[in-house]
Every structure is written in C-alpha cells, then in structure tokens.
## 1
Amino acid sequence: MRRIKIIVSYDGTNYCGWQIQPNGITIEAMLNKALHKLTKENILVIGASRTDSGVHAYGNVAVFDTDSTIPAEKFAVALNQKLPEDIVVVESQEVQACWHPRYQNSHKTYEYHIVNERTVLPTKRLTNYFVSFPLDVEKMREGAKYLVGEHDFVSFCSVKAEVESTVRTITDLEIEQSGNEIKLRIRGNGFLYNMVRIIVGTLVRVGRGFYGPEEVKKMLEAKERTNAAVTAPAKGLVLVGVEYSETL
C-alpha cells in the first residue's frame, strides 16, 4: 500500500464544497470517482482544507492510499483524463504512510478578490465579489493590521464551528489594489469556519466607512461573533496553497 499526495486546483462554482455530503456534488466525491475508474479500488481522498460551496483553489492538498502500480508522478496526468475540466490535479508524488495533510504543521494562504465597480462584469462574476460602493483601501489596510499576530478569533468565526480552540495566528494580511480590483492575501497557521470571509466582510465595511479601522481591534477583544460584520460571498475566495514543515 502506498500513500500518494496530490495538489488539486478547481473552480468551485458548480460544487457543494470539498467534503462529501448527501445532497450535492463535491470535489472530494469527484476525485474518489476518478480514482475508482483509474485503479478499480474504492479510494477515499483526505483533503487539507475542506473548502465551502463556491470556494475555489489553486493548490489544495490531498492524499490517498492505493495498491496500484501506477508511478506516483503519473497519477496527475491519468486522473486529469477522468476529471471534469473544472478540477485539475496539478502534481502527484509518493509520501510516507504517516503523512497527513491536516495533521502536518502547515501554513495556508488564501486570496479574496473584490471588484469595486458599479456594474457586474459577466466574465468575472463567478470569481469576484462586486462591491458597488466606493472603498477606502487605505482604511481597510489600517484595520487589517489589528488582525495580524496570534489572537482569539471567535468574533470572526461562524457559530457552526466546532473546535477546541479559536486561537489562530495570522502571519501576513496584505491588501493590494490595481485599478478597480482589490485583492486581500492572508496567510496563517489555520483558519476557523468562515474566518477569512468574515474578515473580508468586516474590512469591506471599514472601507465603506461603517466602522473606523480601530474598531477591528475592539471586535477582536469583544470575543463575540455579533460584533463583526456579515460574511463575504464564497465566490471571491481562493485557497492559494498549503506550505508544510518537516515535523508532524
């Protein structure tokens, strides 16, 4: 039995997220189906990030165990012949049997894409959050500074989250602007359920002038979900990648 690690890119528009569920098609289900067609084995992949419905990825990570003799590096090409066009295995390699994408020490990087434009552009509607009101990007940057570091992010976590601790560390949070396009890039050692989207929703409200930048600090300290803003739409969110350390 071998363990194969794959890096997966996908457009999440047509899927009910990563994780298998009874009432919808998911990324995980499509990978399992493709692997069964390829190897004739009943394989279940394990993903690093269980992205929500509509969320995209450039580089989600997953593993699966197989008795197949297909060379590890060939799985990517073979699987892509059996997957739909909106799911692509970018890379495949063999790893140790104990290597686990969720239990390995790691940092994840997400991007959130906003178009600050009054009119929705059809070609960008599935991958961007369109905000029609003017945004003060500098104030958004000021508010973002309060979120960098180790904090209890319970105010920026969906009430559905079931975790032992809501303390996380954000190492970088950058906001870039090019014309009417705004990109938030956030890197951390882990993220709570809907955490990135709630952060974006809050910073957008800061950019619109509903909150002052310093109020983001007060939201953190309040440790109460109702203090932060609404959750931004899923379609603007992309999992860029997962970086792993050598230690388990």
## 2
Amino acid sequence: MVGLFNWFNAALISVLALIVFNSAQRIAGLSVGYLVEYKIWTTGLLIGLLFVFVSKGRIWLLLPGSILIHHLAGHRLGYFRYDLGYFAYGMIAVSGDIALISLAALFKVFNAVFSSVLLEKAILFFVVFAIYDILPIPPLSGSKLFFGSRMVYAFMFTTIVVAGVLLLLDINILMAIVGSIVIGIICWLLYYIFFERKVWRGPSPKKFNPK
C-alpha cells in the first residue's frame, strides 16, 4: 500500500508537470501562429530508466521528449518571418520550462502556508524537469533555443538554472526570482564580452563585386 501510494503521488506530479509544460508551449505557439505537437523521446526515457535502476534511484535523468511545430498559414499572415523560424521555435520550446519554474514558485508559496512533503517533492520535480529540459541536448527544448539564438540561450539557461536552485533553498521567493534574473543578465553580459563578441564577425566586410 505504501508503494502504491507513492506511485500515485509520483504519477500525479508527473502528469501535472507535463500538462503545464506542454500547455504553455501550445499557448505560446498559437500566439504566433504555430501549432505545437509534443513527441515522446523513447530513447531518452529508456536512458533515464537505466540510470535510475543502476543508481538505485539516486540519479534522475529526465529526457522525456520534445515538440514539433506546424505552420498555420492563415494565422501567420502579416508576420515579417512568415515561415518557420529557429528563434520562434526555440522561444516556444523554452516557454514550457518557464512555466515549470513559475509553477514551482507558486507551489513554494503554498508550501509556506500549508507545509506538505508532497508539495516539496513536486517543487523538486518541477525544478529538475526544467533544468534537464533547458540543456542543449537534441531534441530537448534547450537545443531548439541554442540553435535559434545563443545570446538568448545564455540568458535563459542561467536564469532557469539559478532560479531552480534558489527555489530549492530556504530563501524568500521574491529574492530567488529577482536574484536569478540579475545573475542571468550578468552571465549573459559576460558571455557576450568573452565569447560571442569574438566569435560573431557579422556579414563579410568586403564590398559587393558584380564581376
């Protein structure tokens, strides 16, 4: 009975995370004229199960799947980028991670009022899910944003990871949110100064030669 009760709680948390995660992506996609379809990554799930059994549950490896977006021709009329774009693809994908971190912050508020072990487990799962999904591993959401814009990825990756870690600590929620954004901006700026500025040269400076 204890095992069944724990399984039910785990299933409840997992289903809630997937619903919120994919709903945010679908809403973000529809807002810019794309239809979002979620695809389970069977290989990622099997790898995660292997790590769980080998480590006896000590290592979580959450690689559930990714999204596909379909162009809604009628909804995209008038947009500057009419067809599918890498940047829009990445922002739609990462909206699910933002929703999970926001849900974790909301549950942390509830947990401060109604202390519960189930809420603590849910917060931990949401944070771990978001951090794994933002990694630049194809076909996860992080890879979509990484190929769409490295600069935006540097900010979003740092902000989500720091926000997740701070939400797991016993600190004020507002401080965790503001702190993660500030650290994200600092890391974004450092990334631009020490890497992106040197790598990205822009268009070729040579003048156009019709010959």
## 3
Amino acid sequence: MEKLGVGIVGTGWVSGEYIRAFEADPRTEVHAIVSRDKERAHAKAEEFNLQRARAYEHLEKLLDDPGIQIVVLATPHHLHVQQGIAAAQAGKHIVIEKPVALNLEGLRELQAAVHAAKVKTVVSFVLRWNPLFETIRAMLADGFIGKLFAAEVDYLHGIGPWYAQYYWNIKKDMAGSSLLTGGCHAADGLRWFVGKKAVEVFAYANTSPDNPLHYEYEANSITLVRFEDGTIGKVASSVESIMPYVFRIQLLGDQGAIRNNEVFTRRWPGQKDWAAIPTVLPDSGDVAHHPFPQEVSHFVDCILEDRESHANLDDAALTHEICFASEISAREHRPVSLPLK
C-alpha cells in the first residue's frame, strides 16, 4: 500500500511528537514541513532525519502538494481557524491542535469548511488515548462504580517563562483563556467520562493579585457544568499555579468512586480502602509523555476505513462550547445555556 503523505505545519515542541508518531506508523510518511522561516523547517527535517521531506515557508505550497493527504496544524491557537479552512478546501484530512478556535464564530466557520469538503478530522485531545483514561472508560462502561452523579477533572499547570509557549500564551488574542489554552483537556475529560450532553455552565475566574506572569486574561477559573441527566461536573483550570503539574480526576457513582488511578467499589465485598490501578497517569505537561502514536494510529484507521473519529471536529466543538460558555459566565456573572446560539 502506498503510504499517506503528511505535512507538518509548525516547528515547535509538539510538532516533533507528530513527526515521531507518523514516521512510526508504517502507513504514513512525513513529506513536508512548513515554517515562516524556511531554515527552521529544514532544521526540523534534519533533526528527525527526514530525507524525503520538503521544507516550505508558505502553507499554500504544502496544500498544493499532491503527495500530501494529511495536514497537521501544530501552530499557535489563533492560526488554527484560517489554516484549517485552507486545508479543508484543499481536500486534506486534518489533525488540529487544541484549541481549534478562540471564539464561536471561528469554530462555526471551520466546521462549515470541513463539512463542505467532507474531509476527516481529529482534534488533539490526546489524553483520550492515555492508559488511565482508557481504563476509566472501560470501568464506567462496565458499571464498575454504578451510575455517575458527580465528576471533577482539574488542570493545574503553571506556564511561565520556563515553558516554550509562554511568550505568546499570555496574550489574550493568541491563547484565549485559561480553560481554552490548557484546561480544555480537563473539560474534554469531563465530557468523555460523563458521556452525556452538557446543558448549562456557570463559572468564576480571576488572576492572582499581582499577576507576576503578566497574563492578559484571567489565568484561573472554576467552571460548573450541568449535564442533561442531572449529573454535575466541575473543572478547575490554572495556568499560573506555583506547583508541580496536576491533572486530577474524581468520579462519584452510586456504587463506588474513582480518584485518579484509585477505585473504591461495592463490587468488592469487604473493601476497606482505595485500591490502586498500576497504569500510566496523565501526570505531566511534557508533550513527550502524551500518547500521540495512539492518536495518530487511530486517525489513520479512520481515514482508511472511511469513518469519523470520536475526537473529530464536531465532537471537539462541544468541549469548546463549554470553554466559551465559561468565559461568558465569568464575565457576565450568570449561568449560560448550551448549545450556544
């Protein structure tokens, strides 16, 4: 079988993980890299010994390349809508780093372009392929802790000058909000575990008193979510917390509970304390720790089998709507109904 050609847009930290993942899949090969600085694209290709990869300084040249079937948008957030629309109109399947858009209007424009082009998409809520996430989903499907009635997923990740994306991540027009720029992983995890439609959001947000990291938006938020079956959820997000990275999961069911990789259930008579699951946790902000190979393999399967990903753009839009609604609620001090109009 002829390999699918992949074009990587962006040469930052996360682009390297996509290169590794696509090069590891025997069905794909990286054929091109795009950077505003063509020499950076050349350097990235050399770093990964991509002898057949071409370097481009304009996205249009990559999209005109007939040898490219998949485009990876590993660029700053504010570029994703424009680049995604162009890729869809060129008939390319698209991997989109999160967040895919910084406002509802841009999200809807991108969705319309993808629908019109009938291309496949996957939004990189990569933790869906984390082993703990997969274990929890299997336990929930088996009714291991009964019916969920409350769920919490938190993202606490101090992003300062020591972090590669800090210098643009502090800008409102490039990062959006605490929940969008990083906490969206937790919002998506909440949706992924509850498995129901979110219908209402209420939120508070703030920044620390002196704002030492100079964020242009409120760097911390707590978002409450009500789901259609009455389940309640909470997402805390902070990008200025002074602490090691924390991704916290707590799920309460009528037959037990899950706390990160620990479980307590009525299925085990006589259980007196939490039982630990020895697995890989989502406990690092390092992109090298994230399961990109599994995400990439899944997406290639979707393309070759002509089916939609569970993390396609339309599904990711539901997570983004929670993030947009959180920002509206915190600003206007009111609950916000979903879906957003």
